[in-house]
Write a structure and sequence with these properties.
By secondary structure, this protein is α+β, with helices and mostly antiparallel strands. About 45% of the residues lie in helices and about 20% in strands. Strand 3 and strand 4 (about 80) form a beta hairpin.
């Protein structure tokens, strides 16, 4: 059998639909305006955003800080942990100010239409908005053309990803690549050539 792009997409979609009851799919796709999100079922929470990272600390401290279950809130069917009662109160007063862009997925992946990955400790705050990344190379590649890449990510998020199932979107864009797609190796080479990779 010849596997065309269409066949691969159909196979991937079938696998995704077959896994529709799995915990990860449920955690990442709440029935709310926040879908999809980089969340997991853990620590007694059905959808814990960014593995419990304190999303307020990104903005107030420009730092990754792990939250605690004793300081928690639920917003739009997604659970959040905070490092302090003060951070919980700030979030509760203005949740959308603190929620990372693109549902907490790697901004570099969103630039390619792929909601995937995102480490709570790899982030950048730009104009009061938090962007999460899947690692230092991913972040450095995104920062090579920061304004252009934010615009691309905004476009894919708003026009294609937001409100849709993360697994189906991921499967689609892993088969049908965006015109400007670059592999991890290609991006790493660009980062190295620009002298932007640390030790």
């Amino acid at each position: 059998m010849i596997f065309t792009r269409t066949n691969k997409l159909l196979i991937a979609a079938s696998l995704v639909l077959g896994l529709s009851g799995c915990t990860a799919m449920t955690a990442q796709n709440p029935a709310s305006e926040l879908t999809p999100v980089n969340a997991a079922a853990m620590e007694g929470a059905d959808r814990l955003m960014l593995f419990g990272a304190d999303v307020v600390a990104y903005i107030t401290q420009n730092a990754y800080v792990q939250g605690k279950s004793e300081f928690s809130s639920t917003y739009q069917d997604v659970d959040f942990h905070f490092a302090s009662a003060e951070h919980k109160a700030l979030f509760d007063a203005e949740p959308t100010k603190y929620i990372p862009q693109y549902g907490g997925y790697c901004a570099n992946g969103i630039m390619f239409g792929i909601p995937w990955g995102g480490n709570a400790s790899d982030f950048k705050v730009v104009n009061g908005k938090t962007y999460i990344f899947g690692g230092t190379v991913s972040q450095a590649a995104f920062e090579l053309e920061l304004d252009k890449n934010i615009a691309l990510s905004d476009e894919y998020w708003n026009n294609e990803i937001k409100g849709n199932n993360s697994f189906i979107q991921r499967a689609k864009r892993m088969v049908i690549r965006v015109p400007h797609y670059k592999t991890g190796e290609e991006q790493a080479a660009e980062v190295k050539a620009a002298g932007k990779l640390g030790t």
